[in-house]
Amino acid sequence: MKAIRSNRVFSAIAVATALVVGGPAFAFTACQVTDTGGIDDNSFNQTAWKGVQDAIEDFGIEGRFLESTAETDYEANINSLIDGACDIIVTVGFLLGDATRDAALANPDQPFSIVDFAYDPEIPNVLGQVYATDQAAFLAGYLAAGMTETKIVGTFGGINIPPVTIFMDGFVKGVEHWNAAKDDAVEVLGWNLEDREGLFTNNFDNLDDGRAFAQNLYDEGADIVLPVAGPVGLGSATLADELGIDQLKIIGVDADLYFTDTERQHVYLTSITKRMDATVRAVIEATMKGEFEGGLLVGTLENGGVGLAPFHDMDGLVPDDLKAELEALRVGIIDGSISVSD
Amino acid sequence: MEKAVSGRVIGRTQFEDLVLVPLYAFVAALVLGAVVMFATGVDLATIGQSFVALVRGSVGSLNAVSETLTAAAPLVLAGLGLALGFRAGLFNIGAEGQVIMGGLAAVVAGVALGGMPAIVALPLSILAGALAGALYAGIAGWLRAATGAHEVISTIMLNLISYRLLDYLLRTPLIQKEGRDDPISKSIPEVAELPRLLTFIDVNLRVHAGIFLMLAMVAVAYWLLFRSKLGFEFRASGENAIAARFAGINAGMTIVLAMCVAGALAGLAGANQVLGVLDRATPGFSAGIGFDAIAVALLGRSHPVGVLFAGLLFGALEAGGRQMQVDAGVSIDLIGIIQALIIVFIAAPLLVRALFPWGFRRGPSKKEGS
């Protein structure tokens, strides 16, 4: 009876069937609870799940996942995994923060790891995975400012929470950096750094919203749009596909969408990658070795936790000068000579 | 309407209508669900494993029963409201919006009453939820009675308004959680929470006092519908509005009251969720309960006791579906398919009779549906 859910029914079953469980008993089981975008969202949840899949392939462990179809599922989903003898439970997303904390405090012997949440004070059985996404988004903003022909670029987010807005912060600062360096006046629609307000769909699963928000930004003159809302951005990509890439280009988030959204790969200028797959795999590996520790794991440009994906089909469109400037910026951010946070 | 030849015939027809059709619809939906799994490449062993998991996750352990009850409570509450509306001839699609307004009001009341003792704070918070739901549904009832605007359209529109209103209100300083920029409410203080019942056995057991609210409301709805003057007026208006009017029943008043009662029950469902399960309101907290409750009311044949069992079944499907994902790796979306199929079969009783001829009386029942 849930309309949002039904359009994913068949692809979700197809993915699920790839995971036929049973047969020999496994020595180690990694379990994951997704956010409402679902395991096959081509971006956020799928990237985190890829970390488990990589671990399955590399270490021969068993992996299980539970999809949250609503925010009411978080606690129930985590609960049913506590029953299920998981060696580590990975919860994916800032919005699962409270549910994960409650479960971790109630079950102190169960190791947890959460993507996109840092606890203060730390909880001994939870390892948070967070990402300096603004570093990569800064590069994307600079790139977008250098590529736009209308001198207007746009962004919108899923929900106004730190792991989303950090993309938008970096993006806007990257554009400002371009404006300062080139004495230009490229405008960013959709996010205001000062009052921390902007465009938000208030969900992470409605593709129609992604299309409508991109349409609004396009109508206001934006020719490059950065949707920071997981699968919602796929709706924006559909619009770009219909309008043509000379009218609208999309910057992907989380995964390199050129590879995960193959039907519309030509609309992506680049993607701001957030390598949750790498950190999730690392957490599983550490837990297998008995080296699990609560605390914080931070992905940066320097350690490859975040990055800017290649331009792929659009490589020829990006001027060589701009590529060189981006590389210089990247080095500058890593060595600290360029700050993305002020 | 059924022909009342004798008392026994009525009992038999009701038995077929209330028990056999839903039962067969459920079986047919399970079989078709298995076919869907098979068609999408799931092997037979996994299909079997997933049905075992469905049972295990819904009734197979104390935690499973706890989860089933937790999921059933809001569905039953909202389903009762819809059932009352159906009986009065009103097709209320707005339970989702009424759940949202009820939940939101319960949060506001709960936070505001944080300094009070539980004996005051909890009942008032629950009452606030019922009241908000009633008022919100009352808008659609009043529009229908005063202007003739059809309640299907107006309640759908009120749903859309409620989503945006929720987004907006969750970001007002009175409600929004301190230190957050996203729409999320403050936490409910402990005095206004529906207490969890079994945490002394295991801290992870989520079943809470809302199940008593659920049972009480089943009794109230039964009394209201079949033992009170108001319920008689609801039913009379639903069976034949023109006859009811000539019998001296105030049609406009009946519509408004029926919508208000339906909204109050949906509002209770919202209050139940925020006070018993979620501890706060967020943009998605209604989680489609108001829509699933339509299915629950239909499956329960708009009878309070039927709604109770239908709600328990849907709660069991939700809890069991989760286990299905864990044990067999089968997608939770399959549960959505099974729920939808149940409704398809319920809506087509003749199809069910054709597929499952066993247990139906020949003869009188064929004259049905006039």
Characterization of this structure:
The complex is a heterodimer of chains A (342) and B (370). Chain A is 42% helix and 19% strand. Chain A has 342 residues and is of the alpha/beta class. Chain A has two domains: 9-131 and 276-299, Response regulator (Rossmann fold); 133-274 and 311-335, Rossmann fold, CATH 3.40.50.2300. In chain A, the strands form three sheets. A six-stranded parallel sheet of chain A has the order 2-1-3-4-5-13, with helices on both faces. In chain A, strands 7-6-10-11-12-14 form a six-stranded mixed sheet, with helices on both faces. In chain A, strand 10, helix 9 (232-243) and strand 11 form a beta-alpha-beta unit. The longest helix of chain A has 21 residues, at 162-182. Chain A is globular and about 55 Å long. The termini of chain A are far apart. Mean pLDDT of chain A is 89; it is low at 1-24. Chain B folds into two domains: 1-42 and 330-370, no CATH class; 66-327, ABC transporter involved in vitamin B12 uptake, BtuC (Orthogonal Bundle). Chain B is built from 14 helices and no strands. The interface between A and B is large, with 49 and 54 residues. Chain A: It holds the Pfam family Bmp.
Protein traits:
heterodimer; A: 342 residues; alpha/beta; Rossmann fold; six-stranded parallel beta sheet; 14 strands; 42% helix; 19% strand; globular; disordered N terminus; B: 370 residues; mainly alpha; ABC transporter involved in vitamin B12 uptake, BtuC; 2 domains; 71% helix; transmembrane (chain B); transmembrane transporter activity (chain B); transmembrane helix (chain B)
Short description:
The complex is a heterodimer of chains A (342) and B (370). Chain A has 342 residues and is of the alpha/beta class.
Low-confidence stretches of chain A: 1-24
Choose one word for the global shape of chain B. globular
Which structural class do the helices and strands of chain A define?
Answer: alpha/beta
Helix content of chain B: over 70%
Structural class of chain B: mainly alpha
CATH architecture of the largest domain in chain A: 3-Layer(aba) Sandwich
Domain unit count of chain B: 2
Here the CATH topology of the largest domain in chain B equals ABC transporter involved in vitamin B12 uptake, BtuC
Please state the overall shape of chain A, judged from the principal axes of the Cα atoms.
Answer: globular
Low-confidence stretches of chain B: 1-9, 364-370
Major sheet summary line of chain A: 6 strands, parallel
Radius of gyration of chain A from CA coordinates: 20 Å
Order of helices and strands of chain A: HHEHEHEHEEHEHEEEHEHEHEHEEH
How large is the count of helical segments of chain A? 12
CATH superfamily of the largest domain in chain A, please? Response regulator
Task: Specify which chain pair forms the largest interface.
Answer: A-B, 49 and 54 residues
As for the number of domains of chain A, it is: 2
Helix content of chain A: 40-55%
Highest CATH level, the class of the largest domain in chain A: Alpha Beta
This entry's quaternary arrangement is heterodimer
InterPro entries (chain A): BMP_lipoprotein, Peripla_BP_I, PnrA-like
Main location (chain A): membrane
Subcellular location (chain A): Cell membrane
GO cellular component, one term (chain A): plasma membrane
